[in-house]
Amino acid sequence: MKRPLEGIRVLECGIFHAGPGGTAILGDLGAEVIKIEQPGIGDPIRATKRIGSISFEIPGGRSIFCEGANRNKKSVTIDLGTNKGQEIVHRLVSRSDVFLTNMRPQAIKSLNITYPILRQFNSKLIYASVSAFGQKGPDRERGGFDYQGQARSGLMYSMGEIDMPPVLSQFGIVDQATAVMASHQIITALFMRERFGIGQEVHVSILGSTMFMLYFNILMTQMGGFEPPRHKRSTELPTRNYYKCSDDRWLMMTLTPPEKYWGSLCLALDHPEFENDPRFNTDEMRLENAKELVAIFDQIFATRPLEEWLNIFAKYDLFCCAVNRPGELADDPQVLANDYLVDFEHPTLGKIKIPGYPVHFSESSAGTTSAAPELGEHTDEVLSTLGEYTRDEIAQLREERVI
């Protein structure tokens, strides 16, 4: 089967995940992705094998973070601090469709890989840059990671309950959102090039991507003049809430509009008398008496295991699902049936499951085809085929430590 971005070549001078994750997605879609790294050092994410007490190291001295950010790629080592190294990149750019970097502006300038410079070698180049806080404003030069995106965007006050301090989400949720946004903008620019014959620069930031993910929370604040309140389970609308079952697993239900489903819910819970109970027979009364009703529901749901409740709710066509832990996803038949987790043969781990590409195409395929490369694994291949350097020239560049 064809892959959507077959024939598209991407160069990346990026580190960590918010930028490189975007080109990994392009690789999922079939693009050839060439990652340029510093000789002997590489992307710092390769060395990110522990954060605090949590180890991310896997067999072969590999890092889980590096695997996720650099799947589907070829690794080429080039010293961009040298004139010859920059000349190599310029030659590769002339034969590529996309260039992505998430280095800070001062580094990009010092390495001569700014958009004005690279477009001299390829006028139709799509140049993508990724920053922490955007390319304008007082903080345009500042760096940042996933946590800064969660903090500055308002996300940390959009999770948890009312009386909690700001809540962080683990791991890399904002970096991945930025990566998705970067891939989206690159594909859009490629489409524009197809239609109008123009190359251009696109810019994505961690802050902007996270705020776009929080679109409705921010829209409520600006349109409605109020900040959306954090969820408080004990007093929130009982029909839009979650409950612990007898097997200590949780069920999440969302019945909207509540009036339509209230009678069916009462039957499903085997308490038909609740339907006309004056304490609960309207949405206003259910909200007014939410604390009492949530406590009643807690007692009811605690009488049966999750799977029984899911079957009962399905009978009455009530919207609900399990509250899964990440480790339970591999046992979820719906996840497996739709290839949201897929089998993958990893070079050091063997057969494992990894996240599948979440979009299905009727006439093409997408998904991970290769694990993260070893540092410099494809240097000779890329320089000889794409760069058209001779074997002797490559040997000389290696002797001079340019590659």
Please give a structural write-up.
Helices cover about 35% and strands about 15% of the residues. It is of the alpha/beta class and about 400 residues long. It has a domain at about 10-215 and about 360-400: Rossmann fold (3-Layer(aba) Sandwich), CATH 3.40.50.10540. β3 (about 50) and β4 (about 55) form a beta hairpin. The radius of gyration is 26 Å and the shape is elongated.
Short description:
With 403 residues, the chain is an alpha/beta fold. The chain has helices spanning 20-28, 64-70, 83-93, 105-110, 115-118, 146-153, 173-196, 206-213, 215-224, 258-268, 283-288, 290-301, 306-315, 333-337, 379-385, 391-399, and strands at 9-13, 32-37, 50-51, 54-55, 57-58, 62-63, 73-77, 98-101, 126-131, 200-205, 240-244, 250-254, 320-322, 341-346, 350-355. It has a domain at 9-213 and 359-399: Rossmann fold, CATH 3.40.50.10540.
Kindly state the percentage of residues in helix. Answer: 25-40%
**Widest β-sheet, arrangement of strands:** 7-2-1-8-9-10
Q: Give the class from helix and strand content and strand pairing.
A: alpha/beta
Summarize the biggest pleated sheet.
6 strands, parallel
Q: How large, in whole angstroms, is the Cα Rg?
A: 26 Å
What CATH calls the topology of the domain at 9-213 and 359-399 is Rossmann fold
Intertermini distance: 36 Å
What is the number of beta strands?
Answer: 15
Note poorly predicted spans. none
CATH homologous superfamily annotation of the domain at 9-213 and 359-399? Crotonobetainyl-coa:carnitine coa-transferase, domain 1
Q: Could you tell me the strand content as a percent range?
A: 15-25%
What would CATH call the architecture of the domain at 9-213 and 359-399?
3-Layer(aba) Sandwich
Query: Whole-number average pLDDT?
Result: 97
